[in-house]
Amino acid sequence: MSRSNLSGLHVLSRRRKRLVLTTQHKEIWHHIHSLLPLRDAARAACLSRAFLHSWRCHPILTLNRCILGSNASVPRENLSCIIDNILRNHTGIGIKIFRLESIFDACNYLDNWLQIAVTPGIEELTLKLCHGEMQYNVPCKLFSDGVQSSIRYLKLSLCAFHPKAELGPLKNLTSLQLHSVRISGDELECFLSKSPALEQLHISACHEIMALKIPCVLLQLRCLKVSDCQKLQVIESKARNLLSFILMGAMVKVSLGETLQMKNLCMSCPNLICSARAELPSTMPNLEILSIGSFDQRVNTPMLPTKFLFLQHLSISLKFTNPSYDYFSLVSFLDASPSLKTWLLDVAYPTMRHESFFGSSSELRQISEQHHGSLDTMKIKGFHSAKSLIELTCYIVKNAKSLGCLTLDTTFGELKCDSGMIGGRCAEMPKDFLTEAGRGAAAIRAYIEDKVPPIVKLTVVEHCRRCHFDSPCEWI
User: Fold this and answer.
1) DSSP class of residue 156?
2) Any coiled-coil ranges, and where (predicted)?
3) Given this model, what pLDDT does residue 61 score?
4) 0.90 exceeded by pTM
5) Are 201 and 223 contacting, i.e. CB atoms less than 8 angstroms apart?
6) Reduced to 3 states, what is the DSSP secondary structure of residue 337?
7) What is the DSSP string of 248-301?
8) How far apart are alpha carbons 231 and 208 in whole angstroms?
9) pLDDT per residue as tens digits for the range 401-416
10) Smallest Cα–Cα separation from 408: which of 389, 433, 427?
11) Tens of pLDDT, residues 62-109
């Protein structure tokens, strides 16, 4: 080969190396640019031609008033125009995360915006509209074949969504959150049946759902949370690997099927305490966290031989309890839970007709001593002078040998002036509640305080004398 040919090959080789190096540099700068917050990425694109191309392929678009118009002087109508310009200048290629939150007058643009942003390869879609725009219907055609294969996280708020049977499977969807979404129970069941990889399902304020049915294909579902669905009557789950179930603000019939793996349960309904103590140890033997709420509780908790062997955190909330209810019967839960570490008992807003220890001639009840070696933290919110509540507290102080912290809150959990609340005043309380709070504090000093071992940190929370100066000072 001639010298001139060798020289030509050498020059070509150097050009190729320079080209490869330039491509590598572009990829590095593109990656750095993709890590910048949206506002900083936009500024960089304006200042540098090198970042202009990567801006048009930016993978994370979070569009809300905080990011686009934190200045209060920016009219909210202008935000839609800003977003429209951003998306029209975006190629639609490479978007991994698209979040559109609380943008006024977005319905006029949404079809175009979603067509640009929701493309094959997207992994997260969050769509939160304003309260006046719930009529927008998220189109099913948005979930094309490529989107169905890539999307992992879907959150819809304040809109309508009516999935059809023709919708293909969403093979990689792991998290679904629906808040104030107009969707029927049948439509949701259809959508769930096409999401076999789903791990988390959160549904709140979806008032058109009357029956929530979880199909058996959801073998990966671990967490189910349902709250404030006004018309919901039935929850039926066939997801046998469910670990956490949270139900709030709804009185519904619940059927969870196989629940042997359940570790976290949170429920609230009338007279739940007894059934929870009687049924859960056998149906959910592996529970570690249990939160139960009950109102108008009438039946005392029975002592039973069954155990919560793995229960570590217990929360019991009793609202507007029947005057005859025996708080001391809750010892049954402590007796059944050898691994229990923390216990929160909320007895706020009791009826004022309970049997107070003041004026009673009977002594504190005694039962056979049973040492409990795991309970470390006990808190009673809404502590008052009910005789059975004082007996329960004294029993715990005497028998929980590992107890480290005991908090007795007589304020019913209301905000106090030292919490930084606006106005610097405690929340107002009815006079009878203030009186009962004072009686509760007096009961602590008279019957409990001297029984607490020195190694236990006792915290007594009382109402504020400065804000409630006109409350009685003598309680007995």
Assistant:
1) E
2) none
3) 85
4) no
5) yes
6) coil
7) ES---EEE----TT--EEEEE-TTHHHHHHHHHHHHSTT-SEEEEEEES--SPP
8) 7
9) 999 999 999 887 666 6
10) 389
11) 888 777 665 545 565 677 778 888 888 777 778 899 999 877 777 788
Q: Which of 39, 68, 77, 76 is nearest to 55 (CA)?
A: 39
Here the tokens at position 195 are 């999401």
Write down the pLDDT at residue 337: 95
Taking 90 as the threshold, does the pLDDT of residue 185 lie above it?
yes
CB atoms within 10 A of CB 373: 10
Which amino acid, residue 334?
L
Q: CB-hemisphere CA count at 13 Å for 450?
A: 5
Helix residue ranges per DSSP H, 219-325: 272-283
- Mention every residue, 6+ apart, whose C-beta is less than 8 A from residue 59: 34, 94, 95, 96, 97
> What band does 54 get if pLDDT is binned at 50, 70 and 90?
low
Q: How far apart are the first and last CA of the chain?
A: 113
- Beta-strand ranges (E) seen in 72-208 are 97-101, 124-128, 137-138, 153-161, 175-182, 200-204
Read off the tokens for 194. 């096409």
Distance, in Å, from the CA atom of 154 to the CA atom of 473, rounded to the nearest integer, reads 56
Which residue has tokens 């305080």? 449
User: Rounded CA gap, 308 and 306, in Å?
Assistant: 7
R_g (Cα) of the chain, nearest Å: 30
- Residues 6+ away with beta carbon under 8 Å from 176: 154, 155, 191, 192, 195, 198, 200, 201, 202
Alpha-carbon gap, residue 20 to 15, rounded angstroms: 9
User: Residue 346 corresponds to which tokens in the numbers above?
Assistant: 């909320």
Angstrom distances, CA of residue 225 to CA of 67, 260, 320, 352, 432: 30, 18, 25, 34, 37
What is the chain's percent helix, strand, coil content, to nearest 5?
35, 20, 45
* CB-facing half-sphere around the CA of 108: CA atoms within 13 A: 9
By CB atoms closer than 10 A (0-12, 13-18, 19+), residue 247 is buried
Q: What order of strands is seen across the sheet that includes strand 211-214?
A: 211-214, 234-237, 253-255
